[in-house]
Amino acid sequence: MLIKRREFLKISSLASASLLVPNFLKSMALDNALEPNRKILIVLQFTGGNDGLNTIIPVKNDIYFRERSSIAIKDPLQLDDETGINPALSYFKELFDSGELSVMNNVGYPNPDKSHFRSMDIWHSASKSDEYLETGWIGRFLDEECYRCDHPTQALEVDDMLSLALKGENNKAFAFKDPKRLYQTSQEKYFKSLYDHHHDDETVSYLYQTLGSTINNAGYIFEKSRSKKTTQAYPDSQLGKDFKTVASLIKSDINTQVYYLSVGSFDTHVNQNDRQKKLFSDINEAVKSFVEDMKSTALFNNILLITFSEFGRRVAQNASNGTDHGTANQMFFISGGLKKKGILNALPDLQNLNEGDLIYSEDFRKVYATILKNWLQADTSKVLGWKNGVYDFI
């Protein structure tokens, strides 16, 4: 059977949902669910470089208000004597007050890069700023933990394309936007027939194998997503829909331990406050629905939701009531199983800057190492090559 260019492109489109390698071509007949009380990690990426100083606000710092005369947040929700949070994140304030949210300030890495693409690659791969890796930190976790994976769905990304963070050398996560739509596409007669009639000696054999794996995985994910549909009301935003999908899968007996989502864009060079307020409102409502959903089924203690952005913004506002690319930023940690709550470290030092940018104090790779070791029970030296200790907030 010869394949035409148009057919090749159709297969490629469907196969890109998984980007799986041939050794993932397995039967989906057996179902190995997560062990009881197994920890689940959810990563929420703030794409575009969120402005951390207008997220967690240094309410008593005169430099902050002087350098941001037009865009400083003047009505934050108070977290403690020195710190406030953007009022659009009101539910995060509730979680903080109940001991279910922690904040780590000033997270970054040495020799920061202000390119969206390069800095995101660094965060995804957990590399040094002058090191280029083709695998991600979660992907390498999958490589090390593959003996636990009878299904190639231990990590899922709710997106059309798979991020570098979830690509390992031998194992990769599975990416999809909507379980039903992916399943319906995979069941189209054209794709099923094409896969059933391919020959092993064709030059596109790898692509056919990926197609077959996608068809099997699509059915497995769709089955799990509807097996225990959530009754919780979620907002109609894209992020709300994504969290609802994750909630339904968590409630099922799917074997997924890591979920990856993203929201943006936070690239707020112009009129920052309006854009950030809209994004934060979407995040706030989606996270509120998800957390309440997980609490209603006693799952929240075994779930850790973390947020990050590829960089923060400069301390001073620009002439367009926005902020330009900066360096360090904060990370949020939301869970019913936190060991340390609240503000985990000092606010950024606005008196000690590097040409107008924050100087990081916490290495993001140490945060990853903490999550891998204390939450996912993985070997940090094998996954990250990290031997510099971990934090104790989880």
From TrEMBL:
Pfam families the record matches: DUF1501
InterPro entries: DUF1501 (IPR010869)
PANTHER family xrefs: BLL7424 PROTEIN, DUF1501 DOMAIN-CONTAINING PROTEIN
The protein's name: Twin-arginine translocation pathway signal
Annotated organism of origin: Chryseobacterium populi
